[in-house]
Amino acid sequence: MEFRFENLLGAPYRGGNAVITKNTQLISPVGNRVSVTDLSKNHSVTLPLETSTNICRLASSPDGTFLLAVDEQNRCLFINLPRRVVLHRITFKDKVGALKFSPNGKFIAVGIGKLVEIWRSPGFRRAVLPFERVRTFANSDDKVVSLEWSLDSDYLLVGSRDLAARAFTIARDGYIFSWGYTEKDVKMDESEDGHSEPPSPVTPDRADEVMVENGGGVGTELKKRKEYDGKGLESDEEGDDDDEEYMHRGKWVLLRKDGCNQASAKVTACDYHQGLDMVVVGFSNGVFGLYQMPDFICIHLLSISRQKLTTAVFNERGNWLTFGCAKLGQLLVWDWRTETYILKQQGHYFDVNCVTYSPDSQLLATGADDNKVKVWNVMSGTCFITFTEHTNAVTALHFMADNHSLLSASLDGTVRAWDFKRYKNYKTYTTPTPRQFVSLTADPSGDVVCAGTLDSFEIFVWSKKTGQIKDILSGHEAPVHGLMFSPLTQLLASSSWDYTVRLWDVFASKGTVETFRHNHDVLTVAFRPDGKQLASSTLDGQINFWDTIEGVLMYTIEGRRDIAGGRVMTDRRSAANSSSGKCFTTLCYSADGGYILAAGTSRYICMYDIADQVLLRRFQISHNLSLDGVLDFLHSKKMTEAGPIDLIDDDNSDEEGGIDKQSRGNLGYDLPGSRPNRGRPIIRTKSLSIAPTGRSFAAATTEGVLIFSIDDTFIFDPTDLDIDVTPEAVEAAIEEDEVSRALALSMRLNEDSLIKKCIFAVAPADIKAVAISVRQKYLERLMEALVDLLENCPHLEFILHWCQEICKAHGSSIQRNYRTLLPALRSLQKAITRAHQDLADMCSSNEYTLRYLCSVPNNH
Question: Which domains are delineated in the chain?
Answer without folding.
Answer: 221-231+252-347 (2.130.10.10), 531-639+677-710 (2.130.10.10), 713-843 (1.25.40.190)
